[in-house]
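Usage

Read records sequentially. Each one opens with the input sequence:
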Amino acid sequence: MPASTVNKDLQAERDKGSFDRNEFTLWWVGGKEKLKEKQDLETFLANDPDFHNETPIHFLSHKELYEETIRQATAIFRKVRKFHEDRGNGDPSNYMQILGGLLGNGIIRQGNPLGIHFAMFVPALLGHGSPEQQAEWLPRALKCQLLGTYAQTELGHGTFLRGLETTATYDERTEEFVLESPTLSSYKWWPGGLAHTVNYCVVMAQLFSKGKCHGIQPFIVQLRDEESHMPMKGIVIGEIGNKLGMNGVNNGYLGFEKVRIPRKNMLMKNAKLLADGTFVKPPSQALTYGTMMFVRVIIVRDTALHLAKVATIAVRYSCVRRQSHINPDQPEVQVIDHLTQQYKLFPSIARSIVFKLTSDNLWEMYNQVTSELDQGNLERLPELHAIACCLKAVTTADAAKSVETLRMACGGHGYMTCANFYNTYGFVTAACTYEGENTVLLLQTARYLIKVWNQALKGQPLGPTVQYLNSFIQNRNNRHAWIDTVPGIVKALQTVAAGKLRLANEHVEQRKKAGYTHEEAVNLTSLELAQTAEAHCRAFLVQSGHEMIEKLCQRVSPALAKVMRTVGELYAYNEALDSIGSLVRFTTISESDINRLQSKLESALLAIRPNAVSIVDGFAIPDVLLGSPLGAYDGNVYERLYEEAQKSPLNKEPVNKSFHLYLKPFMRSSL
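and closes with the structure output:
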């Protein structure tokens, strides 16, 4: 866009950037080829009339919204397929990246009901299906000749998988499973696309054979006729209703009334059921949960992208908006010049970058561990599960708070639906609950930490993410010396986590000695355990962010390296200040140390200030995906807000009929 059309304050911010924005962008998106493909695809879709509505979707009825979302979802799939096939690349993974990333969510604002097909149904087939089953189901699934979802959560049970009530009872006579929902609380509840979109489903149910329960297993079930789309016999299905956000996703409920499926429909890559009803256990029960771990890795990545999006909106708006004086004899300043505003904005930029770096790190770990699994090595699976659980919990919780902070940083205009904070908040806050409620996930991490703590006490080898426990145990009689460098903060936060873990473990043991069962003792210590897992995760985030930034700085320009280090420092200082109470408990930090840390944080804010717009520009999110008049590239906030106001259906006529029906008679009557 020519500079002449850009708000002068916003252009001035771009002119003062100290690093090459394109260099940042190339790192952020993963190189020149990925950037070109990203830009080509965005242009290809952004210019398509299929994705431009004269009436914004927030003015549609619930039914109209779903129908419009389906129209757009099928259109975007066809167009993305054509886009890649025209370029000789028909890899179905492209569809998953589009349907689940900022591009898909930016064009289909209230969530894509087909997204779950590639995000969970296809991965479930890959993760749970035998080679023969994959050969049967995957080709049609990848071509969308059948559409599926993943049904685990029930009306009465969510994260606690062992409590799921849906049953699959094996009938040896017919070699079939009989699926039943024995209670109302056993109805599947929440799967995306389930209500009216998909016709198949991977169902997690309690397997019964030969009179015994063999735990949760995955089954593929046809829900609707492929021709008429009517529900199959015994299938009770519908939509759960309106939600805080993501109302295009078509979340549904599902009940089974003696639904029969053949034995081959139990996905048997891991556990198996023989024709005579004999159950063959998997090498590890944790293999059953591979799909969830994959999704949690993706959630951390997507959380970083959502934060980048809202940070872009809030930072650009804060450069255009002028409010109040700093010096009374000078004009009103840009809101971003207020240090309090910088403190609202810049930590979210730092979080988005650190979360992205950590998601890259986690993705490498996931691929390494899954490769080891294929070779029968399960050693690091618990460690991956533990770190994925707490990262999902902490990043989504922090992102939800950050979106709300950034919305409020935009004042009254941030409250407008068209500002597009509410859409992102709907996506991010939903992630705090789906694929594992955050508190439950923290407790799962804590269970792993208790186990490795006791291993460390015995001198047994530990995985990379918990190596710091060895150092703590060797020096536990001495308070950790505070050092206010980023590596020093990492060690201090690790000391906090280890100290909390030691106390939590002691308190569990004390309660057991007092007569409580192990489970009761864990429950009574659960506040400490959840806090321990969070502390472990925050130490990992600061460490991972720092290490990944240092690696990056070896291959980028000095100017970009300087900015990235400042971003990493801001993240570390902010995490340390948020953990002051714990640092006082477990390290030698003093009041003067805290004052210096506060000064360092403020200096980092001021150092980022000249580069804030260049950083968010570097995220390379086009206006069509930002979907906000507050964050548009040209900075013409007020003109765009007025234009959005004209789209209200109430502005299509000068006098609404309610005046003649109700207001006029009311005003002329005597109360």
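Summary fields computed downstream for this record:
- The chain has 24 helices and eleven strands.
- The longest strand covers residues 212-222.
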